[in-house]
Amino acid sequence: MATEIKVPVLPESVSDATIATWHKKAGDAVRRDENIVDLETDKVVLEVPSTVDGVIKEIKFEEGATVNSAQVIAIIEEGAAAGAPAAESGSQGKQAPAAGDEQVQSKSEAKKADDKAPASTKPQSPGKNDSLPPGARFTAETKGIDASQVEGTGRRGAVTKEDLINYASGKTPGVSGGARPEERVPMTRIRKTIAARLMQSKDSIAMLTSFNEVNLGKVMALRKELGEQFQKDHGIKLGFMSFFAKATANALQRYPIVNASVDGDDVIYHGYADISVAISTDRGLVTPVLRNVERMGFAEIEQGIADYAKKARDGKLGLDDLQGGTFTITNGGTFGSLMSTPIVNPPQSAILGMHAIKDRAIVENGQVVAAPMMYIALSYDHRIIDGKDAVQFLVDIKNQLENPHRMLLGM
Description:
Elements: E1 2-6, E2 17-22, E3 29-30, E4 35-40, E5 45-49, E6 54-59, E7 66-67, E8 72-78, H1 99-116, H2 134-143, H3 161-168, H4 189-204, E9 207-215, H5 217-234, H6 240-254, E10 261-263, E11 266-268, E12 275-277, E13 279-281, E14 284-286, E15 289-290, H7 298-313, H8 319-322, E16 327-331, E17 350-354, E18 358-364, E19 367-381, H9 387-402, H10 404-408
Parallel strand pairs: 12-16, 16-17
Antiparallel strand pairs: 1-8, 2-4, 2-7, 3-6, 4-5, 6-8, 9-19, 10-11, 12-15, 13-14, 17-19, 18-19
Helix pairs in contact: 2-3, 6-7, 6-9
């Protein structure tokens, strides 16, 4: 019996999807609930599993095609055994052999070709590089290079270590700068959406950024003192993000305009702190939302962030995970950024940027001491947030982080 595989029903905010990656081809056997294709929307990548055990009979769209909700994208012959390729869309091209057959075939063909080739053209084993100096020989062996194919620039045409390195990287001897390859790759659906939203932010928001710095010495001491017991009790590490998320949620309650958003000529005040946490993935930046952070404990925040990070890495984030945030926190410090001006994520009105922690000289009680300092930045929509509110909001976060015991007591 033939079973149709359809595009899942997409939310109203998502008009269509793009075929990102087929994990199966026509003629392949599949099992129920096995992922057969990834669909990329403006916000997330959706996995489409098989609904039955069987063999893929037909694939209707190639990678890169645009599809809509409930559209049929593949046909599976239920209960069939894998065998010769079934009918397939012409756009998919010639049927490839099964993975195991392809490996055996390629090895066999390679051996035949090698046997027929003249001795002078056969690839040589690393043992043929024995005449090289030790350093060059090591480079040739580790990079799998046949030195006889490399043009030497050393004395009397000898092949040097540099020659081998240049050969491996595609550089041409005697040509300054070597090869200059180029590749044109279309943007992914998610990357195009990120670009569009960044331009929307730039064009529609009167954005301004304020800075401050925080002494994280007491936070670090608290983590050192309680971190081991915290992990034992809650099964999750006590990181820096929970301190920043909790301090932010508290400050948003005291400065509700920073948590507001603009809708036409209206300002919408949110009585809750739904904080978007920026997470970097191979496909781009995503911002899943921690709901009601003002009610959450440190362990809940850390676990929520860890769960989202894993889902982001595995491509498992859903559309609901990414919608509805009222404020965003981004941490460029994980990549070494010392200072930046983060971009507001519309329709939100502000974003907090964390940065790298560096020991710097500061003055405490009239003495110059070294302290673990972090620059923090608040970018905000100046249409509704005045400089005074933005600065006081940042100072509030600074005071909480420099006095974490007061924050833990809700003071």
